[in-house]
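pasting for ref
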Amino acid sequence: MDTKDQTQQQQQRAGSADKVFTPTENVNVSSERQFVLKSGNTFAVYDANGDMRGRDDGLFVNDTRVLSELMLTFGGRAPSLLSGSVSSDNAVFTAHLTNKPLPPIGGERTPEGVIHVERKRVLSGHVLHESIVLTNYGTEPSTVPLSISFKADFLDMFEVRGAKRGKRGTLRPPVVGNGEVVLCYIGLDEVERIARIQFTPAPDVLSPDRADYALHIQSETAISVYLSVTAVTTALSDASEESKRNAAEAAECAPESGRPAIREALVDAHRRMRDRRKASARVRSSNPLFSEWIDRSLADLGLLTTDLETGPYPYAGIPWFSTAFGRDAIITSLQMLWLHPTLARGVLCFLSANQAKEDSAFRDAEVGKIMHEMRKSEMAATGEVPFALYYGGVDSTPLFIVLAGAYAQRTGDTALIDEIWPSLQLAADWVARHCDKNPDGLLDYQRATEHGLANQGWKDSHDSVFHADGRFPIGPISLVEVQAYASTAFSTMARLAQERGDETRLADYERRAHHIREKVEAKYWMPDMEFYGIALDGKGELCRVLSSSAGHLLAFDLVERERGEAVARQLESALFHTGWGIRTLAAGQPRFNPMSYHNGSVWPHDTALCARGLARYGERGAAVGILQALFEAAVTFDMRLPELFCGFTRQRGGRPIAYPVACLPQAWAAGTPFMILEACLGVTVDAVNDEIRVDRPQLPEGIDWLEIGDLKLGDKDVTITFRRVGGQVVPSVEGAARVVAVL
């Protein structure tokens, strides 16, 4: 067929199509479940159909939504959903759809359910690739009116979350032509953000917000349509002509959509996830469902991990927190340390490189402090929010030291500790300075300006810290769990100072660690409740509230044995344990609400720390029970734990209740099973002493054996298999490593 014939046919089809290409119907998708893909600083959120609808979904790059809508319709109607899923390695999304009755286009009406649509999507770098394959299973040819509608609102992540702005940047007029649409926004930060949407083959009709096709499909044949969305960001204020030229070339040379492009992207995505998986030890078990949970958790961590110049770094969660956070990454690294120590190395290097070098009230920064979060969005760049590099977390700094010490013991990597030793000293000095300012020698916080976070522990909601009568405390506030982190940080620094022969610092660090321990017992213990209060306020008054924070004291071996055992008993009780996990706040406490963010919900990572504490205070069986409960919860959440879920008591035959805007996946939720599993098995990997210790291991019900393979001990690979033998769990070892076991 020559070019003239092709043009005439296209025009005829386009003319016929005008009669059936109607505005997209406003439909409610039957499932509100969301799916995600991520590559570097780019991620996509959409529904089971693969559609983005401009709510809390879209394609995001560096905390900016560059594509707010991408919807597939036939004759203006959404197709029927058959299934939507992401591959087990989180590399590719596939939706299977079918048509509703289609209007005729110069032929017979197409009945419902004869056109199968396979929608496949992958992210590679800053490019979203998609293939749409339509197969006609009917007995007659069909002409399918296919429309792909799209929009780009270029909203900052904080706007998507509800922030209002008095002024925004400039949306440039769309550029349409040659089978593509270019959408552009110039922000107040003088950054040009472009979304380039390309279609192959070229649509019959292409407008600034829609591509229309009239696809003639013979019986039992298939037709493919490809699209790609390329995000390009250029700093207009950059004086470098070379930088501008490179950005322009990137925009002009964005990969073409089509079969070769998506095939290459698929190969790249699968390889990337495979390499991430190889970096961790393997976990297998006799229980296929449990193994699936473990595999999904590792895949989620692989998805969230971003390769930075300083090494791998787990971003906190999608959609709200797909960026570098200090506290979240440290906790995630501690959860994975025994299986995946290189993750901790990357986190330590990044946090050391971004440690505060000067004081800034707006950013809650002080010399030596470890960052809370980093954002690259427009509102962060213009200073509308303080989160470009924000330090408003009281716990990231001591936890940075704790992670460094644990990493050194796990790996024997003294070279890294030598490299970041100045950062560790600055961090310890910051903790010491704040303790010296506090009347009780404790680590406290108070935000420097109203722009910062009011509460700066991990429970950072505005209402997460309060007195027993419900009133909010005056600052500075000394959270109970933060004292565990601070004391452990000083103990860690004492050990590291001793290895360096620094006797002066050794004595000071030991004194400080001991002092905090004593003050916790004296100031936070509530004899009448046999529990520790949540915080001390600025007047030294104890917030006599029962919260899961006391479990963190146990996780870091801070408190007296008898008192720790009393806390453990209450954490196991129905006050805290819902049957699915540990509540952040005991039932019956003031402000208790199982549907709240921090005041009665279940956070898997918090539950994991409590389980770790229970195991350390003689309740290993309770830790096993918690692992079992979270596993059963994960089964109902499609084999992955969300950031949090509601803290309602488990009912017979019931399911855990989802929290509506929880991140899924979320890094420290994905790391949860590994911290609890380490506690249940009683495993300690100690490269400094060249041994692995196993202390009275236990396994959850329904698991007869569990294997930890490719476990690194120095330059050795070790495999440990735990089996039930005569009422005990017995480890067996493959590999030239010393394993010391107590059964």
